[in-house]
Fold these 2 entries.
Entry 1:
Amino acid sequence: MTAPVLPADSPDAIARAAALLREGGLVAMPTETVYGLAADASNAVAVARLYAAKGRPRFNPLIAHVAGIEMAKRLVEWPALADELARAFWPGPLTLVLPKLKAAPICDLANAGLDSVAIRAPGHAAAQALLEAFGGPLVAPSANPSGGVSPTTASHVREGLGDRLDLILDGGACTVGVESTVIALLDGRATLLRPGGLERSRIEAITGPLAIAGHSEAPTSPGMLASHYAPAAAMRLNATQAREGEVLLGFGAVQGDLNLSASGDLAEAAAKLFAALRQLDASGPKSIAVAPIPDEGLGEAINDRLQRAAAPRD
Ligand code: TXA
Ligand code: MG
């Protein structure tokens, strides 16, 4: 059975979603980055169901979503730098990895048994309303089968996971379009674990230069898995023309079959990225060729997702 889709701006829908979550259900919620598949972070049975629905490797820890700073402080140690970053960028596309408090209502399965937790306050009004109504942290990875293209509309969620969850809240198309930037604040250092919807330069204006995560530790990020965010078609990057059997995803002056942003606007390109990959993939091409994207600002996150989509697959 396919899950019902309800408008995310309806107070009744939010109340229904919070009730389902309290019963251990799975609810797709819109955020400003991508749609998340939400479950009660304290409920190990619900979280196990969430991993199963996504087909996600269990060692991958999840982000605990909070309404704001106050809720965050119930989960993690809260150094001055966390406070400064959260005040500057929450609610918004920034995830902070911090030492977990022993009393935090987060089951071991949710953070893969680590002694740290990733937390973020999402910027979408419906996600905020749901977190307020639920009253505690919700884990929410992107609402798509593991390894595939992340969802930026309610119909993307329905196509991928519709029969494996209890309710989909439709809050329209995501405005940011790529996942949050993940920063670890551990051992007195700020480390970039995943580039994302908040430009690195804006964070570094507060933290100074970020350390970059090494690629050796297993559980740090799905980004550490070679293939991720992948469409069915093969991918070829930095292309200026389509070859035989290819479709071309353009940017700026490289026109293509679809263009991420004819004016070369990286925020527009990020917002359109995943929907564009899905749309081109639907025509069943052998390969999707992608125009060069400048590696600056949001281009860092776009290129990260494209490189993982193009990575060798098992
Ligand atoms: O924008 C987003 O962040 C979306 C929306 C739905 O909020 N969520 C999302 O969640 O992308 P997910 O589960 O796909 O990504 C979580 C990221 C991964 O890179 C994971 O490895 C990292 O956060 N992470 C989570 N807990 C961690 C921890 N304790 N230490 C290091 N990295 C952690
Ligand atoms: Mg994901």
Note: The pocket of magnesium ion (ligand 2) is lined by residues 141-142, 150, 222 (CB under 6 Å).
Entry 2:
Amino acid sequence: MKSRGLVVHDSKSPLVPYEFERRDLRPHDVGLDILFSGICHSDIHQAREEWGPSIFPMVPGHEIVGIVTSVGSEVTKFVVGERIGVGVFIDSCRTCTHCKRGLQQYCTEGMTGTYNALDRDGENALGGYSNTFVINEDYAVHVPTNLSLAGVAPLLCAGITLYSPLKHWKTHIGTRVGVMGLGGLGHMGVKFAKALGAQVTVFSHSAIKENDALAMGADSFVCTTESSILKKHSSSFDLILNTVSASLDIAPYLNLLDLDGTLVAIGLPTRPYSVPVGTLLGARRSVAGSMIGGIPEMQEMLDFCGRHAIVSDVEVISANYANVAYDRTVASDVKYRFVIDGSTF
Ligand code: NAP
Ligand code: ZN
Ligand code: ZN
């Protein structure tokens, strides 16, 4: 299958147009036309090798939404013409205890990434900044028909990545949730936490985002450019989700957790956390981590979005704007996710 997209050839080069072939459909494969493809900060980290060596040529993109155009002979999950979503992984071992529990993201052999990975045949996996895709039916999800497709694309990574920890840490009516960073991930955290009945506070270093945060449902907004402001909020949160992409001192945020509170690492900066142990001991606080979500939970999240009319706030762009979009994302200047129109590749 012919595909047109964007590629990076090495960590110092920009995205440029690229033509390539996708594999022919196998019996359990689904072919799709990509309608929208989100730009996740993880795409930038990997294209620029901020997490260590990457695999090039790289076609980034793991927030994919499209329409099924063809199905393999054994496919039962999808029909031609249906809406379909693909997220951060395209395969896993299927047999380990985590895969069997539907937690493919924690596959003990390692999930197979949508890009910057070799697929299980050893081929370079090329991601979603492109106009077509081929995926095994078990690793794709159904998309509710009432949601705008541009706003759905970011749900496939940013959405599930915030939904999963909110559910795992049992967010309910009245849970006091703090969201650090109002970017692609963070703004989905606000929407989900609110829909689950939580009291939501946004911690942001961008004062200009206050009105947007409140409009998304946040109950309060704390601008963190003056760090002493955090002291006012000590011991007043059950759950803090750190979505910040840059290295931050988390010590002042740990202090915001009440007894038994948890700070969940979600953003993946290069520098390790420095954790003051006394702050943990002082109120049985925890630091944890969470990575995307498995296929059953992705479907649950999309169905939840359908029922609650939740989509991402997006700036739809043409493929030729993607390099500018990268720079604007790094500068925290996006409202609140760039999504590439698949017809412009
Ligand atoms: P994003 O849209 O760029 O948002 C990150 C936000 O962090 C920014 O909007 C900004 O929020 C804040 N921020 C950035 N630089 C900062 C700085 N120097 N100081 C303080 N705050 C800063 O990125 P994203 O796509 O949401 O991704 C966020 C992180 O999560 C990335 O590291 C990404 O790789 C990671 N990620 C993890 C998973 C997972 O499974 N755990 C999945 C996807 C992505 P304010 O302007 O509001 O301060
Ligand atoms: Zn992502
Ligand atoms: Zn596995």
Note: The pocket of NAP (ligand 1) is lined by residues 40-42, 45, 157-158, 161, 181-186, 204-206, 209, 243-246, 248, 266-268, 290-292, 329, 332, 334 (CB under 6 Å).
